[in-house]
Inverse folding.
């Protein structure tokens, strides 16, 4: 999402800061469960009329019979954990009202979507679960808890009772992860204490390059495009949500000198310790290729001198965040993906040569599935030697449709096509193992024309975050109107949204002491 800023939004009265409940008793230990989504490793449909048809690369699955052509869809899942419950969720693109979808266990899992046809389709078992579809239904969920208990590979077939129309289901190749077929596993957790408010820090601190020794750094940006100063807006947001933002996120460009006195002041409050995440568009008014060639060296040197004279503490620095949106594949543009990587390397190496040793750099991607599929996308990465953290700016839609989903959707949207087959999180942890991941911007939005409940999405965050150990920082972007003027990203858009968000903020996983 491009730079989204706006009026801070209505603050809810009566909200308490973290310390206000410091003496409240902790709740008794409880046994927890985690909702773990598992996407299909293979999915395709077969056609009785076209016995050699292969559909594994299509963005849809089909079930039903039309003019004697019977179509059956197949899905394969591999689960890594024993489950106490399992539900298969299918997002419907088109469904004839009154028809019945049936899920049948497939006897073998040796088939692959790249070769599956009606001529070689595996035999079906007898275990079935059915659901009758209603007009306009967008999702159907089947309880497969009786079939899925232990870790393993499971295959299922989807058929329809309709003989005059077909049901179309979004497949794994669909660009939006939240619309892909998924097993929602319920996995038992250990007995853990459930404090009502954040407990005192339990030894989690920041080490080298501000990487937490345990836990996750909590951060935010608030108050853009408003008469409210950013520092004031952040303090208001902290009071509403109940936790100090250890990372204070701000934005700069061109010849601006920063951190500003106001930003520095935000890092000197001993009662509310914070560090800075400073975004800088070094090439403002220039091109990436120009910066790489040295056209902005004076700008870099001037900023280096300002930092060395005014700010000694370690801080995060992101150079030209969300570069995907500005890539121009014309080699003469100076704005190719390789030009970005070259610009990034040049700036970091010059800062180091200038003695700026407290800037911890973050490459902040958009992580959009369309860009991930581009052949040039891997060329953006400037190299492990000049990259301290890998960042992601990604958002979720509280309304059904584009980018509706949960935290796993936000972190690991897969490419729609192309040579890169990994979602963002899997790409980062596979190709650049050991690099900490910062969710440098995240948020849940809905249209300004209507209020959708963000609480259900916020409720997915903690369990899924704790399953993603490479994520070491989460920075919320809060504004009531983005750059399109259409989307509200506040956590205060409804009472239920704020209640759910405050539960996230209160979790001890964010009890990290800045050092």
């Amino acid at each position: 999402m491009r730079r989204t800023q706006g009026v801070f939004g209505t603050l809810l009265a009566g909200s308490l800061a973290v310390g206000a409940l410091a003496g409240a008793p902790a709740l008794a230990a409880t046994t927890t469960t985690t909702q773990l989504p598992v996407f299909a490793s293979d999915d395709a449909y077969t056609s009785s009329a076209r016995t050699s048809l292969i559909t594994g690369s299509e963005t849809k699955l089909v079930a039903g019979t039309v003019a004697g052509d019977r179509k059956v869809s197949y899905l394969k899942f591999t689960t890594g954990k024993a489950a106490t419950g399992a539900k298969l969720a299918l997002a419907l693109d088109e469904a004839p009202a009154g028809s019945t979808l049936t899920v049948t266990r497939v006897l073998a899992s040796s088939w692959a979507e790249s070769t599956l046809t009606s001529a070689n389709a595996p035999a079906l078992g007898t275990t079935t679960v059915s659901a009758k579809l209603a007009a306009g239904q967008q999702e159907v969920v089947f309880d497969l808890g009786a079939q899925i208990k232990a870790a393993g590979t499971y295959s299922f077939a989807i058929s329809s009772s309709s003989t005059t129309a077909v049901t179309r289901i979004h497949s794994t190749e669909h660009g939006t992860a939240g619309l892909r077929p998924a097993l929602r596993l319920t996995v038992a957790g250990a007995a853990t204490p459930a404090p009502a408010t954040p407990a005192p820090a339990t030894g989690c601190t920041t080490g080298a390059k501000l990487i937490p020794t345990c836990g996750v750094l909590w951060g935010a940006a608030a108050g853009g495009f408003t008469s409210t100063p950013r520092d004031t807006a952040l303090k208001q947001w902290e009071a509403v949500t109940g936790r100090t933002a250890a990372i204070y996120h701000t934005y700069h460009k061109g010849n601006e000198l920063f951190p500003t006195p106001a930003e520095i002041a935000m890092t000197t409050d001993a009662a509310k310790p914070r560090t800075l995440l400073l975004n800088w568009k070094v090439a403002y008014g220039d091109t990436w290729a120009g910066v790489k060639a040295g056209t902005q060296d004076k700008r870099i040197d001037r900023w280096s001198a300002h930092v060395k004279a005014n700010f000694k503490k370690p801080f995060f620095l992101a150079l030209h965040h969300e570069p995907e949106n500005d890539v121009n594949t014309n080699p003469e543009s100076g704005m190719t993906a390789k030009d970005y990587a070259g610009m990034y390397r040049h700036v970091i190496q010059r800062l180091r040569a200038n003695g700026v040793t407290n800037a911890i750099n973050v490459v902040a991607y958009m992580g959009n599935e369309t860009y991930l599929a581009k052949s040039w996308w891997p060329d953006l990465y400037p190299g492990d030697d000049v990259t301290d953290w890998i960042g992601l700016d990604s958002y979720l839609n509280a309304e059904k449709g584009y980018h509706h989903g949960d935290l796993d959707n936000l972190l690991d949207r897969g490419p729609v096509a192309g040579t890169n087959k990994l979602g963002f999180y899997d790409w980062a942890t596979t190709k650049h193992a050991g690099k900490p991941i910062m969710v440098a911007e995240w948020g849940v939005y809905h249209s300004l024309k209507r209020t959708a409940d963000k609480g259900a999405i916020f409720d997915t965050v903690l369990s899924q975050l704790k399953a993603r150990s490479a994520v070491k920082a989460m920075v919320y972007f809060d504004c009531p109107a983005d750059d399109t003027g259409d989307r509200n990203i506040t956590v205060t858009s409804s009472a239920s949204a704020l209640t759910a968000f405050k539960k996230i903020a209160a979790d001890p996983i964010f009890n990290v002491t800045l050092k």
Q: What stands out?
A: The longest helix spans residues 337-353. The first strand starts at residue 27 and ends at 39.
